[in-house]
Structures are given as structure tokens and as C-alpha cells.
Amino acid sequence: MRSTSSTLAKANALAELLRELDDDDLAIACRLFAGSPFGAADQRVLGTGWSAIIDIVLELSQANEGELSASYQKHADVGDVTEELLAAHGRQPEPPPLTLAEVVLAFEQIASTRGSGAKRAILESLIRRATAVEAKYLVKTVTGEMRIGLRSGLLEDAIAKGTGAPKAKVARAAMLTGDVGETAVRARRGTLDETRLHLFHPLGWMLATPVLELGEVAKRFPPPYLVEDKYDGVRVQVHKEGDRVEIYSRTLDAVTHRFPELLDPIRALPGAFILDGEVLGWRGERAIPFVQFQRRLGRKNVDADLQRELPVALFAFDVLAENGEVLLEVPLADRRVRLAQYPFAWPLYLSRSEDLAVAEDELPARLDAMFVAARERGNEGLMVKDPRSPYRAGRRGMEWLKVKRALRTLDVVVTGVEWGHGKRHGVLSDYTFAVRDNDQLLDVGKAYSGLTDEEIAEMTKWFLEHTIRDLGRYRAVEPTQVIEVAFDNVQRSNRHPSGYALRFPRIVRLRPDKPVTEIDTLETVRTIASAGDGSDVTGV
To answer: Which of 276, 280, 417, 489 could form a disulfide with 233 if both were Cys (CB 3.0 to 4.6 A apart)?
Structure first.
């Protein structure tokens, strides 16, 4: 998979492998290729930190810190470092050889075990029996960084090729069950049509495409348009059946415990359903600014005092399933009609929306006025949607467009941090950040302003606990913390491997609600750079 950029070659090679596996190994292999030992619907986590992995690798390879640092500087991937150090020192695996079933059993034991020492012991015993290349991919699975150029659509294509099942049916079953392993077995057995929606696993999100200027909207799809306020909160997916309610985040994690005051009102709604919406800090009739609200998001325990200080509301803008009926293929306009029939009452609301049908030359001015009004209501901007569109779970397309703010911003991931100067001496306040380029993370800038002292102190503690390499003043850190940065423009630069640098970047806010898979891409940076300064047009 990793050695070729050809999607056809990847799909054919994987299809050939899948044909050779029995049903049990087929399910396991597909889940591992998807980057998870348990499947997307399974909320278990391994909870093994990078520092424990590095300690195991150093112990088994007998490599020193200098070799570790040099290897990481070359690869920037803990899995590749693992393979290189184990192979360079000639470490041989202990018998007997590993099987797929034993690997998953060990992962299940790690997930169910409490205590970092006990978890580490299980992982170490697994890696002891692994060859260097096996150890590489065990570590990649643990860290969630497979990086072999195999996206979900390509894996589904390989399952279709390997079993003879239609690709569309494979993709639908994987989406409904949240388990690509179960889907592969169903595809082989010819039972994909029997697949039913499993509640209480998060479906993929339909994502919006940013527009660089208001005039672009009419080029994406014709009128009419469904225009909604873009709320400045955290996107959630709400599942309800009977008395059970679960709330899932953009990272596909269950975050139900973070919003206890929403649970009884959601239970009071009739029927079983899946809603797509946004949770905001909400006081009176206005959103609490996200920079204040995000203090609540980082708390594991939300007590009564915090609920009073930072109350929340749910704004629902879509319904994906209702009483066993999957609504993904139903046009958005019809889904909104269904959603409007729900008896929402505080703290549950139907999102604000307006139908708009105007000529192309009138559209920018109308949208600009609506954008200003949305900002005056305390919201982030606008969403412009095609009312004819289905819900494309897990896809980004041109049927949903986001118009956020006149100030251009990007969502990026922190890859390195530095100790600050002056009053910030003793805290890690200078953040180097990257965008995605396929399976790589490429740095595009460094920012040190925008966060509060409290946020910097909290993040310093996190970065110290999640350092990959300590180079004195600079630390390479686990690339999992997403931030939103604003900037004036983009310029070409030899300073960063991306070939670009953001001019005058500053941190707008932390984005704990956003996974690294959804940060902005190098292609977006190129587009902004080719557009010139762009600081006076609607940004991303």
C-alpha cells in the first residue's frame, strides 16, 4: 500500500490479499487497514502514550537517545522510527510468530486494562514477538497514524473487488454499521442488503467546502439556496432511542458526559433518531463567545457550578435517521421539514435558516447582508446549502459551503513548541504548526500570540507529557492538538517543507473538537497563495 501512489494498484493488491483470508481474519485485517483494531463504531481506546512506546523501542533495540532523535528527525513518524531502530540493532522477534487474532486480543486487553504500567507490559510483550516491520505497523495502529495512503473509499473499493460486491453497497453498509470488518464479511457472504442501521455509533460527517469570495457560491450550484447561521460552537451528532442518549463529537468520540443538562430534554423528544447539530455556550438569547465556552470543553467533570457559569444549548440543523428509517438520500429540504416538526424547547432549538432565490448578480450583496446580520447575532458567519442535496456522510463536497469571516483563518495541527521569553519564560508558548498533504503533515508557520495565560499553562502541561523529542529550547510533540490560526496572507518560503509560510499568523483559538483528519490542506494554502493577499475577502 505504502510503496505505490497508484490507487488502482493499491486496490488490486489489497483485494488479492483479502481473497486469501478466512472470515475472522478478513474482518480483523479490514479494521486494521482502516486504522483501528476495533472498528469505528467501537468506542474503546487503547490509551497508550507515545512516551511508553518510545521507552519500549529504546529498551528492545538498545538504541540511545541520539539515535532516536536522528531517526525521528528523518521520519517524523514513531512507527518508522520503531522499524529503523529495531532493524539497525538486529533485534530478533521472540517465538512464536504473531497471528492477527492474537494481535487484536492483545489490543482488547490493553483497552480493558487500567494503569499505564500494565498497558505498557501488554504492548511490550506484543512487540517482543514482532519483526521490525510488524512492530512498525503495531505502533502505527496504536498511535492512529497508519499513513499508507489508504483512505476509507479505497478500502471499500478493495473489499468490493475482493468479494465481487457492488462498491456502492459496500460503502453504504460500512456507513450504517460503522464496522468495515463486518461489512467485508457481509460482502463475501452476499448479505449486504440485510445491513441495518446501528444506532449509537457516529456516522461520518457531511463537511462543507470553504468559499474564498461570495461570488463563488453561484458557481457551485444554482438557486434556490438554504442559508443558515454558522454557529461558533462544537458540532455534535445526537443518537436517541428509548431512554438512551449519546452525543458524539467531530472526532467520533462519545462526549455525552460533557453536556448533562441536554440529556433529559433530548429524552423527552419522541421516537428514535440521529440529529446533526451544534452545541453552543448559550446565555439568554445569545451565544457565549467560543473563547469563553472552550474552558468548559476541556473539563472531564461538569459540575452544577460550571453548568450555571457556562450553560449550553443544542441547535439542530439536520436529521439523518428517524425511527429506523435512514434519511441520508432524502433531499435536505425534506429533511428540514421533518426536523421542523420536532417539539424543540429550551435548551434545544431548531437552527436558524432562510430560503433564498435570487439572480446570480444579486447573490453576493444579499449574502453579505445576511453575513453581517449573523455576525451581529453573535454567530460565526453563514452556511449556504443546496436544498436538493443528500447527506453525504464522511464526504466534503460543493453542496454545502461555509462562509465564516472576513479574516482568513486555517485549522492546523501543532507539531512543535518552544519555551517562551520574558513574562512567558517557563511556559511553552511558541507553536509550530502544519497542514495536511495526503498522509504527510507539512509545517507552514509558527505563532505565539492569541491564547490566554491560563490556556498556555494548560497546554504547556499537555505538551510536556506528550513530547516526542526534547531538543532543549524546542520540543517535537505528538501532532494531535488542532488550533485555528488567522493570518494576513501566504508567501512562498524555503523555511518550511511545505514551501509556504503564513504571514503574521496568530492563534484564534484551540480546537479540541476537531480531529487532525479535518485540518486544512496544502492545496488550500496553495489556493490562497495564488489568490494573492486576500485579506479583504471571506476566508476559510
So the answer is: 280
Listed residues 127, 143, 159: the one ending a domain: 143
Domain count, the chain: 3
Q: What is the pTM of this model?
A: 0.74
* CATH number, domain containing residue 100: 1.10.3260.10
CA distance 142 to 134: 12
What grid cell was written down for 11? 486496490
210-226 pLDDT tens trace: 886 788 899 999 999 99
Maximum alpha-carbon separation in the chain: 72
Task: Round to whole Å and give the CA distance between 276 and 327.
Answer: 12
Q: Are 255 and 248 in contact (CB under 8 A)?
A: yes
What type of residue sits at position 130?
A
User: Please, which pLDDT band fits residue 459 given cuts at 50, 70 and 90?
Assistant: very high
Identify whether 29 is part of a domain.
no
Domain boundary, last residue among 118, 143, 168: 143
* d(C-alpha 280, C-alpha 229), whole Å: 13
Q: Are residues 288 and 355 in the same domain?
A: yes
**CA atoms of 262 and 234, how far apart (whole Å):** 14
Say if residue 279 is in the same domain as residue 309.
Answer: yes
Adjacent-strand bridge partners of 502: 490
Whether the pLDDT of residue 489 is over 90: the answer is no
Environment class of 86 (CB within 10 Å of its CB; exposed 0-12, middle 13-18, buried 19+): buried
Residue 462 resides in a domain? yes
Q: Is the same domain home to 394 and 433? A: no
C-alpha–C-alpha distance, residues 299 and 307, integer Å = 11
